[in-house]
User: Fold these one by one.
Assistant:
Number 1:
Amino acid sequence: MKPPIIDHMASRETNRRERRIQRQRKAILDAAAELFAQKGYVSTTTKDIARAVDIGESTLYGYFTSKQEILQEILNQQAAMVDSLLVHLNDLHGIESFVDLTDLLLDRLLEWAIYNRVVIAEAWTHDEILLSYVIVHWQPIMERLKQFIHTRVAAGIFRPIDPGFGARMMIAIFIASILPVLRGVEPPPTPATRHELAAALVEMIVNGLRAQNG
Amino acid sequence: MKPPIIDHMASRETNRRERRIQRQRKAILDAAAELFAQKGYVSTTTKDIARAVDIGESTLYGYFTSKQEILQEILNQQAAMVDSLLVHLNDLHGIESFVDLTDLLLDRLLEWAIYNRVVIAEAWTHDEILLSYVIVHWQPIMERLKQFIHTRVAAGIFRPIDPGFGARMMIAIFIASILPVLRGVEPPPTPATRHELAAALVEMIVNGLRAQNG
Amino acid sequence: MKPPIIDHMASRETNRRERRIQRQRKAILDAAAELFAQKGYVSTTTKDIARAVDIGESTLYGYFTSKQEILQEILNQQAAMVDSLLVHLNDLHGIESFVDLTDLLLDRLLEWAIYNRVVIAEAWTHDEILLSYVIVHWQPIMERLKQFIHTRVAAGIFRPIDPGFGARMMIAIFIASILPVLRGVEPPPTPATRHELAAALVEMIVNGLRAQNG
Amino acid sequence: MKPPIIDHMASRETNRRERRIQRQRKAILDAAAELFAQKGYVSTTTKDIARAVDIGESTLYGYFTSKQEILQEILNQQAAMVDSLLVHLNDLHGIESFVDLTDLLLDRLLEWAIYNRVVIAEAWTHDEILLSYVIVHWQPIMERLKQFIHTRVAAGIFRPIDPGFGARMMIAIFIASILPVLRGVEPPPTPATRHELAAALVEMIVNGLRAQNG
DNA sequence: CATGAATGAGCGTTCATTCAT
DNA sequence: AATGAATGAACGCTCATTCAT
């Protein structure tokens, strides 16, 4: 009887330790992301990160094998977030839910603003990151959007536009609307403002600028 | 008679030297921009730049006082290019010339693709560069676009949209259309393709996605 | 009971570390002073200093923030030594104790020979060092000497000489007597020799060269 | 007849050229000495020197083979000046001419103030310079002074002091009196002031500080 | 597990000197 | 003879990483 109990306790112990480790990893990741976002990966020193988490510089190496690995973990988590967007995209139908959906996506993107900012920065100067992380993970989303447009073009709801081009424009409008927040020069919108923004985006995408009575 | 001739020759000599210096500066600037675009400013070493121009590392310092100054000159030249766009923006009227204008701007932006890529990269992590270079020089362009939209909204040609929002969306669509080229993962379009792209962009901006018979 | 003990141990640990750091700083300072004295500050490289202490070049920067700071610390310590001379100068009276005092000052100056040599070298070509370190810290000593001379002139013990001039000459004679040792071309005197020297100096200052029966 | 004339002209030409070269060498030497005096030899760049003479940096190498050679020439000229002092020292007799002589030596030393300052600076950190230049050239002067003192001690005019010690003290008093001028923190004295100074120095050396009625 | 101390590799920059003109 | 241009060697300093405790 004892051994199981010991095992159980050991397991609880192990879990507690495991959780503490995960908590610390998360703290390091968040601090590093903040710094990478502000100064860029190369200009952020391991000393900077350690000071931000208030641990010794060499303690970092108990949680990550290198500074590079910290970045990779940030990229991984952001990629997971992008992947999760697809779940929401799978019920694109009426215009109403389209606005709600847009709102939801904006929310997700803004919640991960700092991680996104890091990814954008690094993908801009590293081909490998652009190809392995950004393009790979956004590809399914692009496909879903293309399919969405294609369906509506076939149904005569949308003009006969190239779906790939349309999808890219959609994402552009989408991202551009929150760029200053991602960049860190504007505060995140309130939920209400964000919802208005979502509505405006959808209208812009669907109707463009021309007056409807034209 | 002799002094003038001597002067003349001296002047010619001086000009030749001056031209050689300018040519070399340009070569360094281009090589540096290419490297900054690919690896970022901090990760590019002065040794990299020197090797790319095939000169000694210390020779760089005969043309620029520091690595930092090389970057600043790149930013300055890009800013001058942005300023020059305004000239073209001053005759925005019919839709036809709007497409031509868009084509022209795309052309300018693509011609300076590498410099633009550097500016985007650095502005993304340096507030000072974002504020002093990017925002300062794009501001007049934004103003011109807002005015353009405002006029058309007043005339009932455009929907009653917020001009600021509209202008930002215009630029977003504009930039997004050439982002892969700026980023260096797609080759620049041929003039014909570029013109088609310009037409598609204008249609997207003006008409959105909705079918006209809707 | 345990916490106090732990604190105590921690404190002991901290003290041990602190002492080790101070010991290392002192070793670096001494090695640097030796090199600065031999080759001058600018001609001494950080590599030279590191090699003399048998540590890596970058290890220096764990103890001092810059090569400049090493020099400043040397200047500071020498200045503190000069300041401490004043304590001894405050009982200048009989001729006997004047010799003993001179002996004491020579001893102090020679003990810090290398540091003094560095200060002289640097003050010779840096106005800021001359004014901020040398003149500032020797000023009180000069004042004390002037006062000493002034009193004796008033009492008819000394000839009616300008106290400022006299004080400067006293220091000149004083320094000159140990210049070869400071310069490093003669070994330091034994205590006995030094005491004889002190007596000769005092006699020189007080009696000059003229025969007393003159 | 022609060849001689040609020779003569050539010679005149050669002389003119020679003189021009010597004039330029002197200009370089003076400018370099000024800079070496202010910032030290190592901290003075060849660019500094060239700018001070208003010639190209590489032009220096038409007159001197290296920066080191410029310093050596400065040392040589200063050494020649020191040698020339000996001429004056050869009629040391009455006390009156002793003051005049001191005045003369001060004059010579001050005229070459900048060169002296350079020599002192370099001899302070370079054993070779101290031994080969300073000590070698001051040795005969020291000998002459020792002889001077020895004679007077034998004649009962001076106290029975060690001639070597006395000679060194004489030079110390001598140099110390003009140290601030050599160092460049005081302006050179007028001839009248200088003569007073000479008298005071001689009195200090001969009579010390003690009142004569003592 | 946490960390202070140490360090090799590499950075941007300077400078005495050479060389083609 | 004069010089602008070029450069190798060396400098002071930083930083990601290792290691003994």
Note: Residues 17, 55-59, 62 of chain C lie near DNA strand E (CB under 10 Å from a C1').
Number 2:
Amino acid sequence: MPELPEVETVRAGLEPAVTGSTVTSVSVLDARSLRRHDGPVEDFADQLLGAIFDGAVRRGKFLWLPIAGSGRALVAHLGMSGQVLLRAPAASPDRLLRVRIGIESPQHGELVVAFVDQRIFGSMSVRDLVPTADGRAAGRGLDDARIPDQVAHIARDPLDPAFDDRAFFAALRRRRTGIKRALLDQTLVSGIGNIYADEALWAARLHFDAPTETLSRPRATTLLAEVRLILARAVAEGGTSFDAQYVNVNGASGYFSHSLNAYGQQGRACPRCGRPIVREAFMNRNSHFCPYCQRLRAR
DNA sequence: AGCGAGCCCTGCGCGC
DNA sequence: TGCGCGCAGGGCTCGC
């Protein structure tokens, strides 16, 4: 499920439940979900038991819960199919449950943080926090300039107030690659995946393979603005209210609750010009675009 | 530097 | 009904 808006929905849903909560139990049902944890399963559980979470923070598609007084955080990445769900302790286990973390919340009582992941491309891990390179807050959710070492190489996302537009444009100009490759490069700009890349490129009328170095400043500015617009709109639509009874912070509503203009629309009419949207193989995935509105040569 | 390929995996929906 | 296949929103590493 997860690009930035979906992960933000999860973060916002988790925040009120986990902040100030104490971990009371840890159960790892599939050790493969801890692939990115530096140590054995027992170590993961040991680090978490008794931990108190300071909040829920996100940068790009990475999510983490800082552990009070430890200099560490529980880090989650959802991969292609991961979900973090809040459950009542007595609820029957979700299908594809990989990690189950019991917490005691000051306001909401006992809850379960359930990490569900079909393909196991996602992961949970306990990682050390390191200072951010620029000394600014690491991500959305907490004013703390420390970031998990696993996330330190990930660029800020376009909704981050500390995102540096000028540095982004300069980096873009230095690149010798196609614009979609650049958008998907999480070390250049984070949070954008295949869906929102296609949607932003459609909105900015850019071909996915347009060379970054030839992208004019106005077109790059337009593209970044479209990225922000699309991400922000999806975040607004994905917002889930917290319900202490039976909580589901699944961000699934994000993608499909609003109409997509390009992604998955192959064969259907381009909403702008009426000609058919095309799907083309790209980076072991697909690109969806309008060959008329999004031509390789600038018009 | 950046690309392509390969790999990590499971389950769904579709066509036959 | 059952089977095989293609498909899926990510990220990391490696060799070139």
Note: Residues 239-248, 250-256 of chain A have pLDDT under 50 and may be disordered.
